[in-house]
Amino acid sequence: MASAAKAVVKICDMPSDMLETALTETEYAFTNLNTEKEVAQAVRNAFVKKYNGVWHCFVGRNFGAYMTHEQGHHVYFYMGQMAVLLFKTG
């Protein structure tokens, strides 16, 4: 799924170090994994391991979402043509 595209952050409600982790983990996953589902699982698992709690990650070209999230724990960005939505729930 190799994607070396620069990330374009659309919505960010998280500390800059957490955002950096999200972008790094996502770029690594796109480079080394094969499907959108695998990328989403890898990013989610990295955040559960590093930041604990209940995290959710959606990866794809065409999806809509409406959710509630824990304040300070939400990001929505594009990496190339792929959108990534990552957030934590209580």
Structure description:
The protein is α+β, with helices and mostly antiparallel strands. The chain has a single domain, classed as Protein Inhibitor Of Neuronal Nitric Oxide Synthase (2-Layer Sandwich), CATH 3.30.740.10. It has 2 helices and 4 strands. It has a 4-stranded antiparallel β-sheet with strand order 1-3-4-2, covered by helices on one side. Strand 3 and strand 4 form a beta hairpin. It is globular, with a radius of gyration of 12 Å.
Short description:
The protein contains two helices and four strands, in the order E-H-H-E-E-E. The protein is α+β, with helices and mostly antiparallel strands and 90 residues long.
Largest sheet, spatial ordering of strands:
1-3-4-2
CA gyration radius, whole angstroms: 12 Å
Task: Please tell me the CATH architecture by its name.
Answer: 2-Layer Sandwich
**For the record, what CATH class applies?**
Alpha Beta
How many domains comprise the coordinates? 1
> Uncertain segments of ≥5 residues (pLDDT<50)?
none
Task: Describe the largest sheet.
Answer: 4 strands, antiparallel
| Overall number of strands | 4
What share of residues is helical? Answer: 25-40%
- Write the element-wise H/E pattern from the N-terminal end onward: EHHEEE
CA-CA gap between termini: 32 Å
Mean pLDDT: 94
Question: Helices and strands: which structural class?
Answer: alpha+beta
CATH level-4 homologous superfamily: Protein Inhibitor Of Neuronal Nitric Oxide Synthase
